[in-house]
Design a protein that fits this description.
Length: about 290
């Protein structure tokens, strides 16, 4: 039965990560699921996928309740932990930084139901068994979650060619301090979120508006960061959280990531910058999910 667990390990991580927004916590949830699976009497388990999904979902919901209390004292904006992805990642929008931030505003139950229903297409009866609620309660939670997400996360998915073009132009403009080009690429009401967790120097509040964001980015590109000079820093365009993003490295470590979401005109509407070193381990591993 070890092979059954291995068959669904990637699914379990995918479910846990979307519920928790943290790769390290998702790995812990998968490990807990393995321990429970190993200790259980599996003679009556006819559907290992449903059984394992139920375990990891409940573990992740419990973890989310606990970590949310910790996040109340977090220094500056809290952003999800970035992961490397591939073009084949299932439902790339569901793993985007912008979507994960919206999911943070759902209750643990609503978030689990939304992930299982909208991302992985589980039936309501399957979800009810997984979260140990009635099917009616699950349907109500799914309705609330769907309405909330649709209200806060309009779906403007720039095609991959446009994403790559904008990312490349953004990198060139930001590296060269070209504020005019940055202004062309940014939506007028763009928001930049930075997460240093109080461990590295970052903006403690969102930076709002194209002019302020462009100026901030141009200034940062000329500044040494945590002992690494701009000349010593390498920037790579790669797949991060379901779309093209930037990974900054220097002095033998990952320094930060930048990810983007877009408006209907294909301009950058949101930028999420994660620099808290505790949140960069999954990217530093080099293993895509």
């Amino acid at each position: 039965m070890t092979s059954a667990f291995d068959d669904y390990r990637n699914l379990l991580f995918a479910v846990a990560y979307r519920i928790l927004g943290s790769a390290s916590d998702a790995e812990d949830a998968v490990q807990d699921a393995w321990l429970k699976w190993s200790a259980a009497d599996r003679s009556g388990v006819s559907d290992p996928k449903a059984y394992l999904t139920r375990i990891v979902t409940n573990v992740a919901m419990d973890q989310l309740r606990s970590t949310r209390r910790q996040r109340e004292t977090y220094v500056g904006p809290w952003l999800p932990e970035p992961i490397l992805t591939t073009a084949e990642t299932a439902d790339a929008d569901s793993v985007s930084m912008a979507m994960l931030v919206v999911l943070e505003s759902l209750s643990p139950l609503e978030r689990a139901v939304f992930v299982l229903r909208e991302v992985f297409d589980f039936g309501y009866a399957e979800i009810a068994a997984a979260v140990e609620r009635s099917e009616a309660a699950v349907r109500q939670a799914a309705h609330r979650a769907r309405e909330h997400v649709q209200a806060r996360r309009p779906r403007f998915a720039a095609d991959r060619g446009r994403q790559r073009e904008v990312t490349d132009r953004f990198l060139a403009a930001a590296s060269g301090g070209d504020i005019n080009t940055l202004m062309e690429l940014l939506a007028p009401d763009v928001t930049l979120w930075t997460d240093g967790g109080g461990k590295v120097r970052q903006a403690l509040r969102p930076v709002l508006g194209a002019e302020k964001v462009a100026t901030w980015l141009a200034a940062v590109s000329r500044t040494s960061y945590e002992g690494v000079t701009p000349a010593e820093m390498t920037v790579t365009v790669t797949e991060v959280n379901g779309g093209y993003g930037l990974v900054f490295t220097g002095a033998g470590r990952v320094i930060s990531t930048l990810t983007f979401s877009y408006d209907a005109a294909g301009r950058i509407a949101e930028i999420h910058n994660v620099a808290n070193p505790d949140k960069l381990r999954a990217v530093a591993s080099g293993v895509p999910h």
